[in-house]
Inverse folding.
């Protein structure tokens, strides 16, 4: 893996489900510490693209390199440097918040003590709920718990799929600040969101997907106008 | 080894979740008891016939309860797509498989101390504590034999419609060696083993377990390849 | 076009051999001493047994190739072999029952090979059912190939298990004791049935390949991309 190679490199990536091409001709290079906002209507392929980058799905065409590696065949190595926040919470309803964090911490092989995990819960205002089962959490609380997971995994690349969905105003602000801090830290961030106005304030570059193909690329600040222009 | 630690974490997670939701586990156990009762009604109140078939009824109750237990083992994984979350972590799919198969084996093993006494009572079988331990030991081998292919198939069928019929359809013919082996072995334990056949049957069960725990471990990665 | 010819030749040769072998077996070979005319079913039964085992073994090999390479053609060959194997297994069971009834007075006598075949037919039929429930073609290929591998490994285990289980009871003979005068039509039919089976596998495989080809639509044309980096104001599409 040479120095200066992009964090994410997609060449001619396409994904087909049955007879339908959900993604096609996706050429994309995201440099390290860059932040990219993916915009597009429902069904434009944002989630599929993120899943391919995370190694959960294999492209039907083209090639993908994450930190110089194929996320599907070299899954384990890629996953150590990658974290994904999806609209799926990946939680076990029967576990408490602390127990859930402990499981993630042990699987990531990062030595977090219970005190350290408690401090992380404090950061997202969940310490009052640390010994309560996740099943009773609201959507916003679940999202916040999932964010703590990214802190545990401490990734080089952070993928976020609709991180603001189902959150109230306070929740949205918290997530925004969280992502902004990751960007400041130098994490490579790729976020797919409908809330283009908010996210364009945080991200550097923007990309608009239209029916699975890249319709527009440019600075994230210009993305809201571009999306407006299509509406 | 790193994977062993991860397997331990995952098994502990499964056991904790099962304990917290123990009413569900209890219903599987009760299902096993009901099955034993149904066999009695099917055969009739003929204690000779019941005693002769006791081993078979016991193993069948285990088999029928197993599909419920196996499906249950994956229900929690799909609730919030938790399994996908595990796949996103730096965990080898092999470790995921062994953790799940181990949890399933332990759960099936828990059925033994409940169902065996019920069978002893209903089918008028004479049994001492040493014999009971032998039965439970064999039950463990049978449970392991059901869990390995069962976990792999359950991982597939839990994502499909008609999973309730697909899992037994795939699993039951496959585990005929476990069924035959454990029925024979348990029958020999209960009624006596004049020709010393028990070691052969035990070996068959152990052999099946070794083959399938290895094979399914290797193949599991292909089953969860595309996320689940 | 070459593809069409090889399996047509195979099928025709097989058919010709089957007619020849069956004629000899039914009319020219001597009747078996003890069992009489019903023994002649052996000329169908034994070849079917050999071929079904070979075809299922082929399915196993194709399954390994399918899992390893992920290529659609191995999945197609595996599907064809599995389906033909299941049908032949079912035929085998039917033949066994036809032989058992006049000989022993019962339709089913727990013969080791037939019992194993019955279990295997149900198992592989279940795998075919599994296929029909999975919509994504790649997942369908991988999952059914994994199931075929697991199922095939089970065959010797089931066989030995049922044999031990049966050996505790009386062993009855099966229609496979062969005198030397009966070997020729038997060999002819064995090759014949195998060739015909291969023909059926090829047909089914071709259908499956056509189905996969039909699914694999080419990527739509690349659309122009608007570049927001250089333009002063973004253009509308």
């Amino acid at each position: 893996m040479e120095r200066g190679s992009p964090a994410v490199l997609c060449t001619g990536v396409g994904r087909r489900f049955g007879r339908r091409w959900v993604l096609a001709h996706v050429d994309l290079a995201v440099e390290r510490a860059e932040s990219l906002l993916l915009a597009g209507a429902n069904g434009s392929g944002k989630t599929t693209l993120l899943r391919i980058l995370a190694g959960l799905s294999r492209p039907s065409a083209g090639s993908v390199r994450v930190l110089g590696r194929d996320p599907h065949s070299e899954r384990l190595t890629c996953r150590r440097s990658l974290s994904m926040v999806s609209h799926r919470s990946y939680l076990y309803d029967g576990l408490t918040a602390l127990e859930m964090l402990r499981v993630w911490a042990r699987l990531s092989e990062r030595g977090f003590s219970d005190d350290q995990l408690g401090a992380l819960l404090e950061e997202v205002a969940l310490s009052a709920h640390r010994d309560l089962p996740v099943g009773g959490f609201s959507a916003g609380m679940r999202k916040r718990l999932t964010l703590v997971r990214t802190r545990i995994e401490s990734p080089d690349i952070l993928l976020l799929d609709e991180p603001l969905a189902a959150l109230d105003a306070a929740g949205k602000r918290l997530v925004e600040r969280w992502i902004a801090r990751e960007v400041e830290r130098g994490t490579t961030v790729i976020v797919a969101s409908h809330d283009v106005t908010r996210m364009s304030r945080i991200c550097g570059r923007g990309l608009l997907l239209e029916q699975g193909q890249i319709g527009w690329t440019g600075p994230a600040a210009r993305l809201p106008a571009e999306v407006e222009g299509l509406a | 080894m790193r994977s062993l630690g991860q397997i331990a974490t995952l098994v502990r997670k499964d056991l904790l979740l099962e304990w917290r939701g123990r009413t569900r586990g209890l219903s599987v156990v009760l299902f096993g008891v009901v099955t034993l009762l149904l066999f009695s009604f099917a055969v009739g109140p003929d204690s000779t016939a019941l005693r002769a078939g006791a081993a078979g009824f016991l193993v069948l109750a285990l088999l029928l309860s197993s599909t419920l237990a196996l499906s249950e083992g994956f229900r929690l994984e799909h609730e919030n797509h938790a399994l996908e979350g595990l796949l996103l972590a730096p965990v080898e799919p092999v470790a995921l498989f062994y953790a799940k198969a181990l949890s399933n084996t332990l759960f099936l093993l828990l059925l033994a101390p409940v169902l065996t006494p019920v069978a002893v009572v209903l089918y008028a079988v004479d049994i001492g504590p040493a014999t009971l331990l032998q039965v439970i030991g064999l039950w463990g081998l049978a449970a392991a034999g059901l869990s390995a292919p069962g976990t792999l198939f359950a991982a597939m069928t839990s994502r499909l419609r008609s999973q309730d019929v697909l899992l037994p359809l795939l699993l039951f013919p496959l585990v005929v060696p476990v069924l035959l082996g454990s029925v024979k072995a348990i029958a020999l334990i209960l009624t006596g083993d004049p020709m010393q056949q028990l070691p052969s049957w035990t070996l068959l069960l152990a052999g099946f377990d070794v083959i399938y725990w290895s094979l399914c471990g290797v193949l599991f990665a292909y089953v969860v390849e595309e996320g689940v | 076009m070459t593809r069409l010819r090889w399996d047509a030749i195979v099928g025709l040769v097989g058919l010709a051999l089957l007619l020849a072998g069956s004629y000899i077996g039914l009319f020219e070979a001597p009747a078996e001493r003890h069992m009489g005319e019903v023994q002649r079913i052996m000329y169908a039964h034994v070849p079917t047994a050999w071929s079904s085992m070979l075809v299922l073994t082929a399915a196993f090999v194709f399954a390994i190739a399918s899992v390893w390479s992920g290529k659609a053609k191995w999945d197609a060959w595996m599907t064809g072999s599995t389906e033909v194997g299941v049908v032949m297994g079912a035929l085998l069971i039917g033949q066994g029952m036809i032989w058992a009834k006049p000989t022993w007075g019962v339709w089913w006598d727990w013969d080791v090979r037939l019992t194993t075949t019955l279990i295997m037919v149900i198992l592989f039929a279940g795998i075919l059912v599994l296929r029909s429930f999975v919509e994504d073609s790649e997942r369908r290929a991988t999952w059914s190939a994994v199931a075929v591998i697991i199922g095939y490994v089970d065959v010797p285990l089931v066989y030995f298990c049922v044999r031990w289980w049966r050996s505790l009871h009386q062993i009855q003979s099966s229609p496979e004791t062969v005198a030397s005068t009966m070997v020729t039509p038997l060999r002819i039919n064995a090759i014949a049935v195998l060739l015909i089976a291969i023909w059926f596998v090829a047909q089914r495989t071709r259908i499956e390949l056509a189905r996969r080809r039909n699914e694999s639509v080419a990527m739509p044309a690349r659309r122009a991309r608007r570049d927001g980096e250089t333009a002063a104001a973004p253009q509308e599409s």
